[in-house]
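Input (structure):
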Protein backbone atom coordinates (compact mmCIF):
# COMPACT_ATOMS: atom_id res chain seq x y z
CA UNK A 1 0.00 0.00 0.00
CA UNK A 2 2.85 2.40 0.74
CA UNK A 3 4.20 1.89 -2.78
CA UNK A 4 0.80 2.61 -4.32
CA UNK A 5 0.38 5.76 -2.25
CA UNK A 6 3.89 6.91 -3.21
CA UNK A 7 3.17 6.43 -6.93
CA UNK A 8 -0.18 8.25 -6.64
CA UNK A 9 1.54 11.09 -4.83
CA UNK A 10 4.18 11.42 -7.57
CA UNK A 11 1.62 11.56 -10.35
CA UNK A 12 -0.61 13.95 -8.44
CA UNK A 13 2.36 16.32 -8.03
CA UNK A 14 3.13 15.87 -11.75
CA UNK A 15 -0.40 16.86 -12.71
CA UNK A 16 -0.48 19.97 -10.49
CA UNK A 17 3.06 21.03 -11.48
CA UNK A 18 2.45 20.56 -15.22
CA UNK A 19 -0.76 22.56 -15.12
CA UNK A 20 0.86 25.46 -13.27
CA UNK A 21 4.08 25.31 -15.29
CA UNK A 22 2.27 25.46 -18.65
CA UNK A 23 0.21 28.48 -17.59
CA UNK A 24 3.31 30.27 -16.27
CA UNK A 25 5.40 29.50 -19.39
CA UNK A 26 2.64 30.64 -21.74
CA UNK A 27 2.17 33.90 -19.84
CA UNK A 28 5.94 34.56 -19.85
CA UNK A 29 6.34 33.94 -23.61
CA UNK A 30 3.38 36.14 -24.50
CA UNK A 31 4.40 39.02 -22.23
CA UNK A 32 8.06 39.10 -23.40
CA UNK A 33 8.07 37.89 -27.04
CA UNK A 34 4.35 37.98 -27.99
CA UNK A 35 4.67 34.27 -28.74
CA UNK A 36 1.92 31.86 -27.68
CA UNK A 37 3.34 28.30 -27.37
CA UNK A 38 -0.22 26.93 -27.40
CA UNK A 39 -1.00 28.43 -30.80
CA UNK A 40 -0.22 26.29 -33.92
CA UNK A 41 -0.09 29.46 -36.09
CA UNK A 42 2.80 30.86 -34.02
CA UNK A 43 4.78 27.61 -34.37
CA UNK A 44 4.14 27.64 -38.15
CA UNK A 45 5.49 31.18 -38.32
CA UNK A 46 8.69 30.16 -36.44
CA UNK A 47 9.10 27.14 -38.76
CA UNK A 48 8.83 29.30 -41.88
CA UNK A 49 11.43 31.71 -40.54
CA UNK A 50 13.78 28.80 -39.85
CA UNK A 51 13.35 27.40 -43.37
CA UNK A 52 13.99 30.84 -44.88
CA UNK A 53 17.39 30.97 -43.19
CA UNK A 54 16.60 32.90 -40.04
CA UNK A 55 19.81 34.22 -38.49
CA UNK A 56 19.80 34.79 -34.72
CA UNK A 57 21.47 38.13 -34.05
CA UNK A 58 20.13 40.02 -31.05
CA UNK A 59 20.28 38.98 -27.37
CA UNK A 60 16.49 39.00 -27.21
CA UNK A 61 16.33 36.39 -30.00
CA UNK A 62 18.94 34.24 -28.26
CA UNK A 63 16.94 34.32 -25.00
CA UNK A 64 13.83 33.28 -26.96
CA UNK A 65 15.59 30.24 -28.43
CA UNK A 66 17.14 29.25 -25.07
CA UNK A 67 13.74 29.49 -23.38
CA UNK A 68 12.18 27.13 -25.94
CA UNK A 69 14.97 24.54 -25.61
CA UNK A 70 14.99 24.80 -21.77
CA UNK A 71 11.28 24.22 -21.30
CA UNK A 72 11.56 20.43 -21.00
CA UNK A 73 14.62 20.27 -18.62
CA UNK A 74 13.08 22.89 -16.33
CA UNK A 75 9.79 20.97 -16.27
CA UNK A 76 11.51 17.69 -15.26
CA UNK A 77 13.77 19.37 -12.69
CA UNK A 78 10.85 21.13 -11.05
CA UNK A 79 8.90 17.88 -10.88
CA UNK A 80 11.82 16.08 -9.18
CA UNK A 81 12.30 18.87 -6.62
CA UNK A 82 8.60 19.05 -5.74
CA UNK A 83 8.47 15.28 -5.16
CA UNK A 84 11.06 15.62 -2.35
CA UNK A 85 9.11 18.26 -0.42
CA UNK A 86 7.12 17.14 2.69
CA UNK A 87 3.86 18.78 1.69
CA UNK A 88 1.80 17.49 4.63
CA UNK A 89 4.14 19.19 7.09
CA UNK A 90 3.91 22.50 5.25
CA UNK A 91 0.11 22.25 4.96
CA UNK A 92 -0.15 21.71 8.72
CA UNK A 93 2.10 24.69 9.40
CA UNK A 94 0.09 26.95 7.08
CA UNK A 95 -3.34 25.77 8.27
CA UNK A 96 -2.48 25.86 12.00
CA UNK A 97 -0.60 29.18 11.88
CA UNK A 98 -3.72 31.37 12.49
CA UNK A 99 -4.76 29.25 15.50
CA UNK A 100 -1.26 29.26 17.01
CA UNK A 101 -0.97 33.00 16.45
CA UNK A 102 -4.32 33.61 18.17
CA UNK A 103 -3.30 31.32 21.02
CA UNK A 104 -0.03 33.18 21.59
CA UNK A 105 -1.91 36.50 21.59
CA UNK A 106 -4.39 35.10 24.11
CA UNK A 107 -1.56 33.97 26.40
CA UNK A 108 0.15 37.38 26.16
CA UNK A 109 -3.13 39.12 26.99
CA UNK A 110 -3.63 36.86 30.02
CA UNK A 111 -0.09 37.57 31.20
CA UNK A 112 -0.60 41.32 30.86
CA UNK A 113 -3.92 41.11 32.69
CA UNK A 114 -2.41 39.07 35.52
CA UNK A 115 0.58 41.40 35.78
CA UNK A 116 -1.72 44.41 36.13
CA UNK A 117 -3.85 42.70 38.76
CA UNK A 118 -2.55 43.08 42.35
CA UNK A 119 -1.34 39.85 43.88
CA UNK A 120 -3.80 38.46 46.41
CA UNK A 121 -2.45 36.31 49.22
CA UNK A 122 -4.90 33.69 50.31
CA UNK A 123 -5.34 33.80 54.09
CA UNK A 124 -5.67 30.64 56.07
CA UNK A 125 -8.95 29.94 57.79
CA UNK A 126 -9.38 30.22 61.55
CA UNK A 127 -9.27 26.42 61.89
CA UNK A 128 -5.89 26.33 60.18
CA UNK A 129 -4.26 29.14 62.19
CA UNK A 130 -5.41 28.30 65.70
CA UNK A 131 -3.18 26.02 67.84
CA UNK A 132 -3.80 22.33 67.10
CA UNK A 133 -3.83 21.42 70.77
CA UNK A 134 -7.04 23.37 71.43
CA UNK A 135 -9.05 22.04 68.49
CA UNK A 136 -12.10 19.98 69.37
CA UNK A 137 -14.25 17.65 67.32
CA UNK A 138 -17.24 19.96 67.78
CA UNK A 139 -15.36 22.93 66.32
CA UNK A 140 -15.40 24.83 69.64
CA UNK A 141 -12.25 26.30 71.16
CA UNK A 142 -11.22 25.10 74.60
CA UNK A 143 -9.96 27.81 76.99
CA UNK A 144 -6.38 26.64 77.51
CA UNK A 145 -5.09 29.77 79.25
CA UNK A 146 -6.88 29.49 82.60
CA UNK A 147 -5.76 25.94 83.31
CA UNK A 148 -2.03 26.68 82.92
CA UNK A 149 -2.39 29.65 85.29
CA UNK A 150 -3.97 27.39 87.88
CA UNK A 151 -1.17 24.93 87.35
CA UNK A 152 1.40 27.67 87.81
CA UNK A 153 -0.21 28.80 91.05
CA UNK A 154 -0.24 25.31 92.52
CA UNK A 155 3.51 24.79 92.34
CA UNK A 156 4.12 28.22 93.91
CA UNK A 157 1.84 27.40 96.86
CA UNK A 158 3.18 23.91 97.16
CA UNK A 159 6.82 24.95 96.98
CA UNK A 160 7.29 25.57 100.76
CA UNK A 161 5.67 22.24 101.51
CA UNK A 162 7.93 20.66 98.98
CA UNK A 163 11.02 21.79 100.91
CA UNK A 164 9.44 21.02 104.23
CA UNK A 165 8.34 17.44 103.60
CA UNK A 166 11.18 16.63 101.14
CA UNK A 167 9.05 14.84 98.55
CA UNK A 168 7.78 16.04 95.16
CA UNK A 169 4.54 14.44 94.02
CA UNK A 170 3.53 17.62 92.17
CA UNK A 171 5.75 17.12 89.06
CA UNK A 172 4.22 13.70 88.46
CA UNK A 173 0.74 15.23 88.71
CA UNK A 174 1.59 17.95 86.20
CA UNK A 175 2.85 15.31 83.78
CA UNK A 176 -0.39 13.37 83.91
CA UNK A 177 -2.52 16.51 83.47
CA UNK A 178 -0.66 17.72 80.41
CA UNK A 179 -0.86 14.31 78.66
CA UNK A 180 -4.23 14.93 76.85
CA UNK A 181 -2.68 17.79 74.80
CA UNK A 182 -0.78 15.49 72.38
CA UNK A 183 -3.95 13.45 71.96
CA UNK A 184 -5.82 16.53 70.78
CA UNK A 185 -2.98 17.35 68.40
CA UNK A 186 -2.96 13.88 66.88
CA UNK A 187 -6.71 14.05 66.35
CA UNK A 188 -6.43 17.31 64.41
CA UNK A 189 -5.65 15.80 60.95
CA UNK A 190 -8.64 13.50 61.27
CA UNK A 191 -11.01 16.36 61.94
CA UNK A 192 -9.66 18.39 59.01
CA UNK A 193 -9.83 15.51 56.52
CA UNK A 194 -6.39 13.89 57.00
CA UNK A 195 -3.41 13.74 54.70
CA UNK A 196 -3.54 12.69 51.06
CA UNK A 197 -2.29 9.25 52.07
CA UNK A 198 -5.02 8.89 54.74
CA UNK A 199 -7.76 9.96 52.32
CA UNK A 200 -6.68 7.45 49.68
CA UNK A 201 -6.29 4.64 52.21
CA UNK A 202 -9.67 5.34 53.78
CA UNK A 203 -11.22 5.05 50.31
CA UNK A 204 -9.90 1.48 50.02
CA UNK A 205 -6.72 1.95 47.98
CA UNK A 206 -3.42 0.20 48.69
CA UNK A 207 -0.61 2.70 48.15
CA UNK A 208 2.87 2.70 46.65
CA UNK A 209 4.67 5.93 47.64
CA UNK A 210 7.30 7.94 45.73
CA UNK A 211 7.23 5.81 42.58
CA UNK A 212 9.23 6.76 39.49
CA UNK A 213 7.56 6.24 36.12
CA UNK A 214 9.12 7.43 32.85
CA UNK A 215 11.75 9.26 34.89
CA UNK A 216 9.17 11.35 36.78
CA UNK A 217 8.23 11.07 40.43
CA UNK A 218 4.63 10.10 41.14
CA UNK A 219 3.71 10.65 44.79
CA UNK A 220 1.23 7.79 45.10
CA UNK A 221 0.34 4.81 42.94
CA UNK A 222 -3.01 3.78 44.44
CA UNK A 223 -4.14 0.26 43.54
CA UNK A 224 -7.82 -0.75 43.61
CA UNK A 225 -9.47 -4.01 42.58
CA UNK A 226 -10.46 -2.73 39.12
CA UNK A 227 -8.17 0.23 38.37
CA UNK A 228 -4.94 2.06 39.24
CA UNK A 229 -4.88 5.71 40.38
CA UNK A 230 -1.76 7.80 39.68
CA UNK A 231 -1.75 10.68 42.18
CA UNK A 232 0.67 13.58 41.54
CA UNK A 233 0.75 16.32 44.21
CA UNK A 234 1.55 19.77 42.79
CA UNK A 235 3.09 21.86 45.59
CA UNK A 236 4.11 24.91 43.52
CA UNK A 237 2.78 28.12 45.10
CA UNK A 238 1.51 31.23 43.32
CA UNK A 239 -1.01 31.97 40.57
CA UNK A 240 -0.73 29.79 37.44
CA UNK A 241 -2.21 30.00 33.95
CA UNK A 242 -2.81 26.42 32.80
CA UNK A 243 -2.38 25.36 29.18
CA UNK A 244 -2.58 21.77 27.93
CA UNK A 245 -1.84 22.25 24.20
CA UNK A 246 1.49 21.49 22.56
CA UNK A 247 3.26 24.27 20.67
CA UNK A 248 6.05 23.51 18.16
CA UNK A 249 6.20 19.89 19.41
CA UNK A 250 7.02 21.07 22.95
CA UNK A 251 5.34 19.87 26.13
CA UNK A 252 2.40 22.02 27.37
CA UNK A 253 3.42 24.72 29.86
CA UNK A 254 1.86 26.42 32.88
CA UNK A 255 2.74 30.12 33.27
CA UNK A 256 3.10 32.34 36.33
CA UNK A 257 3.98 36.03 36.55
CA UNK A 258 7.71 35.35 36.39
CA UNK A 259 8.17 31.70 35.49
CA UNK A 260 6.86 28.71 33.55
CA UNK A 261 7.03 24.94 33.89
CA UNK A 262 5.85 21.75 32.22
CA UNK A 263 2.20 21.03 32.93
CA UNK A 264 1.83 18.51 35.81
CA UNK A 265 -1.21 17.19 33.94
CA UNK A 266 1.04 16.27 31.01
CA UNK A 267 3.56 14.68 33.44
CA UNK A 268 0.95 12.36 34.94
CA UNK A 269 -0.49 11.55 31.49
CA UNK A 270 2.98 10.56 30.25
CA UNK A 271 3.37 8.38 33.34
CA UNK A 272 0.00 6.75 32.62
CA UNK A 273 1.04 5.87 29.06
CA UNK A 274 4.41 4.54 30.22
CA UNK A 275 2.87 2.45 33.02
CA UNK A 276 0.31 0.88 30.68
CA UNK A 277 3.15 -0.53 28.54
CA UNK A 278 5.07 -2.15 31.40
CA UNK A 279 2.27 -3.70 33.47
CA UNK A 280 2.39 -7.48 33.63
CA UNK A 281 0.46 -10.34 35.17
CA UNK A 282 -2.92 -9.58 36.70
CA UNK A 283 -2.38 -5.82 36.33
CA UNK A 284 -1.93 -5.89 32.56
CA UNK A 285 -4.75 -4.11 30.75
CA UNK A 286 -6.16 -2.44 33.88
CA UNK A 287 -7.65 1.03 33.65
CA UNK A 288 -5.21 3.73 34.82
CA UNK A 289 -6.74 6.97 36.15
CA UNK A 290 -4.45 10.02 36.44
CA UNK A 291 -5.01 12.63 39.17
CA UNK A 292 -3.31 15.97 39.93
CA UNK A 293 -3.75 17.43 43.43
CA UNK A 294 -3.24 21.22 43.62
CA UNK A 295 -1.83 21.72 47.10
CA UNK A 296 -0.67 25.37 47.29
CA UNK A 297 -1.05 27.18 43.97
CA UNK A 298 -4.10 28.74 42.34
CA UNK A 299 -5.19 27.98 38.76
CA UNK A 300 -6.52 31.34 37.57
CA UNK A 301 -8.19 29.92 34.44
CA UNK A 302 -9.57 26.78 36.05
CA UNK A 303 -13.10 27.36 34.75
CA UNK A 304 -11.80 27.39 31.17
CA UNK A 305 -9.78 24.20 31.72
CA UNK A 306 -12.48 21.91 33.13
CA UNK A 307 -13.62 20.85 29.66
CA UNK A 308 -10.01 20.29 28.54
CA UNK A 309 -9.18 18.17 31.61
CA UNK A 310 -12.33 16.12 31.13
CA UNK A 311 -11.35 15.52 27.51
CA UNK A 312 -7.93 14.30 28.64
CA UNK A 313 -9.63 12.01 31.24
CA UNK A 314 -7.59 13.42 34.12
CA UNK A 315 -8.91 14.47 37.53
CA UNK A 316 -7.67 17.83 38.89
CA UNK A 317 -8.63 18.55 42.51
CA UNK A 318 -7.48 20.81 45.35
CA UNK A 319 -6.12 20.16 48.83
CA UNK A 320 -5.13 22.44 51.73
CA UNK A 321 -4.29 25.88 50.22
CA UNK A 322 -4.90 24.89 46.57
CA UNK A 323 -7.47 26.80 44.59
CA UNK A 324 -9.70 28.18 43.35
CA UNK A 325 -12.78 26.88 45.16
CA UNK A 326 -14.38 25.97 41.81
CA UNK A 327 -12.01 22.98 41.66
CA UNK A 328 -13.42 20.00 43.54
CA UNK A 329 -11.81 19.08 46.86
CA UNK A 330 -9.75 15.90 47.13
CA UNK A 331 -12.25 14.29 49.50
CA UNK A 332 -15.04 14.84 46.97
CA UNK A 333 -12.95 13.53 44.05
CA UNK A 334 -12.08 10.17 45.64
CA UNK A 335 -14.85 7.61 45.88
CA UNK A 336 -14.99 4.35 47.79
CA UNK A 337 -13.31 1.43 45.97
CA UNK A 338 -12.72 -2.28 46.55
CA UNK A 339 -9.25 -3.14 47.84
CA UNK A 340 -7.07 -5.33 45.60
CA UNK A 341 -5.83 -8.77 46.53
CA UNK A 342 -2.16 -9.42 47.30
CA UNK A 343 -1.40 -10.85 43.85
CA UNK A 344 -2.65 -7.76 42.01
CA UNK A 345 -0.92 -5.38 44.43
CA UNK A 346 2.43 -7.16 44.07
CA UNK A 347 2.08 -7.17 40.27
CA UNK A 348 1.90 -3.36 40.32
CA UNK A 349 4.46 -2.79 43.08
CA UNK A 350 6.92 -5.08 41.32
CA UNK A 351 6.89 -2.71 38.33
CA UNK A 352 6.89 0.71 40.01
CA UNK A 353 8.12 -0.08 43.52
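Output (sequence):
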Amino acid sequence: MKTIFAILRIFFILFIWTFGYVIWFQHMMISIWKFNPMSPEHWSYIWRLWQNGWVIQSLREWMFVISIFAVLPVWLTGWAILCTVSWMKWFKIILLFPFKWMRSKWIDRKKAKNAARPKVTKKKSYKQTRPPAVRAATGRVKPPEKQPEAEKEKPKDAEPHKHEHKHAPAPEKRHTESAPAPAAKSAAPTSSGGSVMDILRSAGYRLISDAKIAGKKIDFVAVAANHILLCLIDSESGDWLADEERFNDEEPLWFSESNHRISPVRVVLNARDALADILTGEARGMEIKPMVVIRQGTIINAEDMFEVWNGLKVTVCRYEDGGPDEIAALQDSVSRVSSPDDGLYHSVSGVVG
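Notes: The chain is about 55% helix and 15% strand. The beta strands are 206-213, 216-223, 227-234, 239-240, 253-255, 260-262, 287-294, 298-299, 315-318.
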